[in-house]
Write a structure and sequence with these properties.
With about 210 residues, the chain is of the alpha+beta class. The protein has two domains: about 35 residues, no CATH class; about 160 residues, Immunoglobulin-like, CATH 2.60.40. The protein has a five-stranded mixed sheet, with no helix packed on it. The chain has a four-stranded antiparallel sheet with strand order 2-3-4-7, with no helix packed on it. Strand 5 and strand 6 form a beta hairpin. The radius of gyration is 24 Å and the shape is globular.
Amino acid sequence: MTVSTDRNGRGWWRRNGVWLAVLPLLIAAAAAAWSFRLVNLWWPTELVDEVDRADVGETARFVGEYYDLGLVDPGLANTWVTREVDVRVLDVRTAEGLPRSVVAQIDRVPDGSTAWRVELELTAEPGTDLGSCQVILLTADGTRYGERGTGSDPLGQGNPCMPPDSLDSVAPEDGTWQTSTVVLTRAGDTPDEVWLSFGSPHYVTLDLP
């Protein structure tokens, strides 16, 4: 069988030059899609990894990896990033009312519920991504309050890891700051622990008096 080419034997390369040029891009796209699929298949969807625990008044250190899609920093797209945050409980007490917010779904403490104000001190490198932060109260029977499994925020408080009125989701330049958030529990339930998480599977535990 005879293969038809031009005089210089470059016919095949000319006919397929465009495909050869885009082949590396197709391979890179396929690899990124496969990596994201692996994250969805194998990454735990529950809080199962307690990375640190702090006694009353002490500081817990959160260290956990997450798969960055580049939404905050495009330079980190499709990479694994380590997030490091120190946290200490300043106070946990009952609150008479709820924070004012134009996006809140409720404006008063529901019947049969108790509102708890949780005040924290956090420390992290400026620019650390604090998206998906969760401040959770745990009672003695294992009930957890404050988880945002679907990202819902009925009290309209925004990111509980950020200073009040902050519109950002990254650690501020000060490096150490304080936050205040309200968590609703069933009336009569008293929290024993505070959990800080940025989504599954990692969290830290802070004991309460």
